[in-house]
Design a protein that fits this description.
GO terms for molecular function: nucleotide binding; proline dehydrogenase activity. It is a single chain. The protein is of the alpha/beta class. The protein folds into two domains: 55 residues, no CATH class; 237 residues, TIM Barrel (Alpha-Beta Barrel), CATH 3.20.20. 50% of the residues lie in helices and 12% in strands. Strands 1-2-3-4-5-6-7-8 form an eight-stranded parallel barrel, surrounded by six helices. It is globular, with a radius of gyration of 19 Å. The chain binds flavin-adenine dinucleotide (FAD). Flavin-adenine dinucleotide binds next to strand 4, strand 5, strand 7 and helix 12. The site of flavin-adenine dinucleotide has 25 residues, from strand 4, strand 5, strand 7 and helix 12.
Amino acid sequence: MWCEQHSEEGWATEGSAPMPNRLLLHVAENKQLEAIATRNRFTRPIVDRYVAGNGLEDAWAATAELNKAGIDVSLDLLGESVHHLAQSKAATQEYQGAIENIQNRAPGSTVSVKLSQLGIMIDPQECANNLKALLDAAATHGATVEVDMEHSSVGRETLAIYKSILPDHPNTRVAIQANMRQTPEDLASFTDIKPRIRLVKGAFDESSAAALRNADEVTEQYKFLSRWALQHLPDPAFGTHDDSCVDVVKKAAAELGVDKRSFEFQMLYGVRRKLQDQLVREGYRVRVYLPYGTQWYPYLMRRMAEKPANLLLFLRSLIGS
Ligand SMILES: Cc1cc2nc3c(=O)[nH]c(=O)nc-3n(C[C@H](O)[C@H](O)[C@H](O)COP(=O)(O)OP(=O)(O)OC[C@H]3O[C@@H](n4cnc5c(N)ncnc54)[C@H](O)[C@@H]3O)c2cc1C
């Protein structure tokens, strides 16, 4: 097979996923808690760590700082799982505004979109149309679009839409989650055009039928797929803050003779800033995923789930209100 599962042995059992993380991922979907947290001004310091600001101008300001340090960005307008087509249209227009200004404000930037924000849960065809509108704007203005991968409830449709646009927009990047059992098969299914991927571990709470749930096994699978992506795919991106994964990518690239500029590391705004600088100094390309907007709650809760120590800070900020 073109790409095989790293190992079938010792796959995670239901009980092996860390409970606080899974609880937090449920909390991320709770609308009442979202309303409380969003109104609470004491949450602002922790929000500011992970979110570049409320509006596009804030995002450009944060981008300028990162660009000075030799780091590119991918702009992410916060907001997901919209329930009205008007919201998905508004998000599409906001993204178009960003794309039109990329060349003037920060050439080299990309935009990252969630298809649940472009309407995939309401009308997949309308969502595909919105994505095409962004891809056309990106082609006109010399920008690139990256498609985030969300929960498996929209994952199949996301991949199907990505495949449908790929022939006309082969530079479009798609996030691929190492934790998903389906991932090797998905990668093998790209027979004509090899995709540009952003390999990530996977941030959503998934069943053990759908995903590996043991952190060590996800990391091993990430490392296996990293090497594989360097061998088989054009310009792969590695979205990780994990030192051991970063090291594996560096070593595999050196062994395979892949130039440091032929792939990139991607990290989230507010996470491992020193490591980003170090990688730039070593000659690697680095891109920061830069979220902005007011609808930060689900995004922030996923970040809390990745780093439960931060949760204490967040809870204290809520209680401090
Ligand atoms: C650029 C980018 C784009 C992403 N896009 C997607 C996507 O489209 N779909 C998706 O499912 N997931 C996405 N993710 C999230 C990803 O799936 C992981 O949940 C996340 O990156 C944590 O995994 P890790 O590889 O950093 O390793 P981990 O083992 O989780 O973390 C390694 C170390 O990094 C630091 N760290 C990690 N996360 C945080 C944090 N939140 N705050 C502070 N420190 C932290 C800690 O020091 C930690 O010990 C993306 C991640 C990145 C970097």
